Amino acid sequence: MAAHSVLAIDDMHGKEVATNVSARSTADRVALTTVITGALAVVLLSLPYKSFDLDRFFVPKELALHATAAITGLIALAKRPRPALSRVDTFLVAFLILSVISALFAENWWLATRALAITASGLTIFWVARALAAAGYERALVTGLAVAIVAGAMTALLQAYGVEPEYMSLSRAPGGTFGNRNFMAHLSAIGVPIVLLCAVEARRTWGFALGTAGMAFLAAALVLSRSRAAWLALMVGGALMVLLGWRMRDAWTDELRRRRLAILAGVSAVAVVAALVLPNALEWKSTSPYLDSVRGVVNYKEGSGAGRLVQYRNSLRMSVAHPVLGVGPGNWAVEYPKFASRNDPSLNEDGMTSNPWPSSDWIAFVAERGFAAVALYALALVGLLVGAWMRARAASTSHERLGAVALAATVVIAALVGAFDAVVLIAIPSLFLWSIVGALSPAGKPRASLPPHVRGPVVGLAVVVSVLIVLRASGQIAAMSVYTSATTTAQAARAALFDPGSYRINMRLAESYSARGDCKHVLQYAGAARELYPNAPQPKRLIRRCARVN
């Protein structure tokens, strides 16, 4: 009887492998390679144009995200005549539709389409990743994503220990090629569950060794980042993994897994101690920077914590004023000065927000896209957690159960980090989060499918939109290049042709012409800047100055 059962299990396993192999195709392999290449590009790409502080990091990464989504999304649409939608898919599609409608009524269409493109590309990669997992590429995809995440942490460690090329930001170290230490920490925290999964489930000893080294790099980079949001999310996510791991005790009956887990924990602890003890090139103002960060994890009475509360309160006032569709994707910074309180720490000396987004995905979504959109997004995340539970219950192998744990932990960590910082609003974590949850989540029961007669127009529209999105990001890079290399104001003015939505370029041109007394061009470029940010005081000041002269 036992022998018969073993043969039955082997037969089922053989059928599953055969099904996965038959489901694979050249198109799937191209899509898999594209997603992994895109993940590495999103992590490593940056530009040397230092006068464009954040954009020199964000724009090339956004271009990589959009190109990855465009190529793989079109492959997926071409291969699957009638894509089916599960309940989670329905929530995400509805969230995207509301975001599109919100963008149509936004004050600044350039910002709205840029933010909307990140959302659309991220969700496209989610569906692509799930299709790749269904074709048998889950392990390869998750491993490739884990490698890219560790590579990002390594760039931060290189900067922390003295390697600072022009493609890294010196003011927000150790951000590595991310341009900001918090962004690096967010991705590292989101990546911890899959790096652990890859290490524990490695098929070869050298694979486990690489996974262990990766965990050590992530642990050290997270400590050096001093990112309280990432630390807090990891505490909760780690507790969840421990709880689920204990509930699934049968997954740890294998002595090899237990030994590997113990080694991973020990090596990570050593990496944390080494990061705290070894001298580095970081110039913290405090004599006990890491202890201060630990104390400030839940401190909202002073410092950045108090500033967040002020920002959240004023942003919610904005949400109440625009409850249905919000102010439009990416338009929080455009509207926030109208709702800011006196001495609001979110505003800089120029009367504009210090960052182009609020310090929370959730606050950004409710302010920019409305309460209904946030509810749909929350339901989608809950659906992913339910899917993780269903996968764990239906799992026939320990690997599948551990994959369910990694999925649940990833969703929780991303949701918590996103409660205190911008995550899915940015290209880097957006690509990784949606790739990971797509690879690890079950497809779910189909609720609807794309009618055959609609498929052609959808593919055509997807091609047009993809081309426009990629061209927009390419134009932004061209604008930065032209402006940086220009030796005269007339040459620099060409940059505005490549990126008409750049407030920074328009304002710098207006200020340059103002210094020369050329009010004709001041009115042109300051007027363009005012249209982009109607509540910004600087363009109005330059326009009034010219009005007085005339």
Lateral strand order in the biggest sheet: 1-2
**Total number of strands:** 2
Low-confidence stretches: 1-23
Task: Characterize the largest beta sheet: strand count, sense, and whether it forms a barrel.
Answer: 2 strands, antiparallel
Shape label: globular
Q: Tally the helices.
A: 22
Q: Mean of the pLDDT scores?
A: 86
How many structural domains?
Answer: 2
Radius of gyration: 24 Å
Helical content class: over 70%
Oligomerization status of the protein chains:
single chain
Order of helices and strands: HHHEHHHHHHHHHHHHHEHHHHHH
Distance between the termini: 99 Å
Structure description:
The chain is mostly helical. It folds into two domains: 31-283 and 301-453, no CATH class; 455-549, Serine Threonine Protein Phosphatase 5, Tetratricopeptide repeat. The chain has 22 helices and two strands. Helix 6 (181-200) runs parallel beside helix 16 and helix 20 packs parallel to helix 22 (537-549).
Would you summarize the structure shown here?
Helix content is 74%, strand content 1%. It has 550 residues and is mainly α. α6 (181-200) runs antiparallel to α15, α20 (503-515) packs antiparallel against α21 and α20 runs parallel beside α22.
Layout of SSEs?
Elements lengths: L1 H22 L2 H19 L10 H25 L4 E2 L1 H18 L4 H52 L20 H20 L4 H21 L2 H20 L7 H23 L11 H7 L7 H19 L10 H8 L21 H9 L1 H24 L3 H23 L6 H14 L7 E2 L2 H34 L3 H4 L1 H5 L4 H13 L3 H14 L4 H13 L1
Antiparallel strand pairs: 1-2
Helix pairs in contact: 2-3, 2-5, 2-16, 3-5, 3-17, 4-5, 4-14, 5-6, 5-7, 5-16, 6-7, 6-8, 6-15, 6-16, 7-9, 8-15, 11-12, 11-13, 13-14, 14-15, 15-16, 20-21, 20-22, 21-22
